[in-house]
From TrEMBL:
InterPro entries: FAD/NAD-bd_sf (IPR036188), FAD/NAD-binding_dom (IPR023753), Metab_Enz_Cyan_OpOx_G3PDH (IPR051691). Residues 3-170 form the FAD/NAD(P)-binding domain. Pfam families: Pyr_redox_2 (PF07992). This is FAD-dependent oxidoreductase. It comes from Cohnella herbarum. One of its GO terms (molecular function) is oxidoreductase activity.
Length: 410
């Protein structure tokens, strides 16, 4: 039986494996991932930091994996988890396509998945999620098309648009999704504009960044949206068309373009304003949500946290859950940046090592407190915030769930 089994070889899972393996306890650790290559969402990331340096996700993933392997971690890719069960207070049994694994402790670091926003015509070849376009471009080095349209405006979409433009891919427009029961606030120009202001610091143009810093009062935001130009504002040489909505993706055998229309500030289509935008691919950007199905299978209680992207398994700052010997880390606990996931992984790995020592190690207790403090610092300094008020919400959530800290992990 292994000392710890980690599901997910992304930033959180690899970081946890490194922390646990380097704890000095001699823990035997196995990491499983269904993808053929370790790294998770790190693999698709490539962006410039505020200090001018570049964040290369492939390089970061390689460094994490090499360090884990040096510490003796067993990393197995192409392995899908199909079920899991608690063995009383002895540990966990996990079923996979490569057989059965048993471990004293189980960490779920399964990351996040993209939300879909249905658009008429979205089953045509050439339609993909914005995350798929990122992976094809940055990981597989495949050009997704010659001229595209992005449907949806959120922090994930804007980050990936900049990466697609860096790769020399032409984007005809970024528009809002059609207003329907599933699109929610994503099709409301006023709500979307308010959210865009949160990451205006990522804009390449200093005038954009300066102007956005002045538009804080809600009345002024509504005024700006009401006067927003119909042709859009160009960012990364792509029209950001806040007052246009996609009505339908058009094509016979594959994408040929998108039918769009002007919309009012509250998202209603302006009659007679329809036009056709030629394109050979379409990216739909619906945002991310925590991929937490395995936590549900394990029987972990959940909490709905829209500030963190949806339903998340109940957990403490130490990444322990209320279930004996079960831990979580990374985007399964709420959608944040890869740097936060790495820091959370270190917390989870240290917590597992501390619990494996019987909770008696003063050195590991101190390291766990330092790791928790690092998560807060990384979160505070994060360039990308997927949702507003994450720091304040987490502080309140952990305070309300203070009783969870009393759960004893044997």
């Amino acid at each position: 039986m292994r000392d710890a089994l980690i599901v997910g070889a992304g930033p959180a899972g690899l970081s946890a494996a490194i922390a646990a393996a380097g704890s000095g306890n001699g823990m035997r650790i196995t990491v499983l991932d269904e993808y053929p290559r370790a790294g998770g969402r790190l693999l698709g990331q490539l962006h410039q930091e505020p200090d001018g340096s570049w964040w290369n996700g492939i390089k970061e993933a390689s460094q994490l994996m090499e360090r884990a392997l040096r510490d003796g971690v067993d990393i197995r890719t192409g392995v899908s988890v199909t079920g899991l069960e608690r063995n009383g207070d002895e540990g966990w049994t996990v079923w996979t396509n490569e057989g059965l694994f048993q471990a004293k402790r189980l960490l779920l670091a399964t990351g996040a998945a993209e939300s879909a926003i249905p658009v008429p015509g979205w089953t045509l070849p050439g339609v993909m999620s914005i995350g798929a376009a990122q992976v094809m471009t940055n990981v597989q080095r495949v050009k997704v098309g010659n001229r595209g349209v992005v449907i949806g405006m959120n922090v994930l979409a804007m980050a990936i648009v900049s990466e697609l433009r860096l790769a020399g891919i032409e984007l005809a427009a970024i528009v809002l999704p059609p207003k329907n029961a599933l699109s929610g606030h994503a099709s409301d120009p006023n709500r979307v504009f308010n959210s865009l202001l949160r990451f205006a610091h990522m804009a390449p143009n200093p005038m954009f960044r300066w102007g956005a810093s002045l538009i804080r009062p809600s009345w002024l935001q509504r005024l700006v949206v009401a006067g927003y130009p119909g042709s859009g504002l160009r960012i990364w040489d792509t029209p950001l068309q806040l007052r246009r909505s996609a009505l339908e993706i058009v094509g016979t055998d594959s994408v040929e373009g998108v039918r769009v229309a002007k919309i009012t500030p509250d998202g209603r289509v302006v009659a007679g304003s329809e036009r056709f935008v030629e394109a050979d691919f379409v990216c739909i950007a619906g945002g991310l949500y925590p991929l937490a199905e395995l936590a549900a299978v394990a029987g972990c209680p959940f909490r709905y946290a829209p500030q963190l992207g949806g339903h998340i398994p109940l957990h403490a700052e130490s990444m322990r859950t209320p279930l004996s010997r079960l831990y979580v880390a990374g985007n399964i606990t709420g959608v944040e940046s890869a740097k936060v996931a790495i820091a959370q992984g270190a917390v989870a790995g240290t917590a597992m090592a501390l619990d494996d020592s019987g909770g008696a190690s003063i050195a590991l207790s101190a390291e766990l407190e330092r790791a928790i403090s690092r998560v807060k610092q990384v979160r505070r300094e994060a360039v990308i915030q997927f949702h507003p008020d994450i720091e304040r919400f987490r502080e309140q959530m952990y305070l309300e769930q203070g009783t969870i800290l009393r759960y004893r992990i044997n």
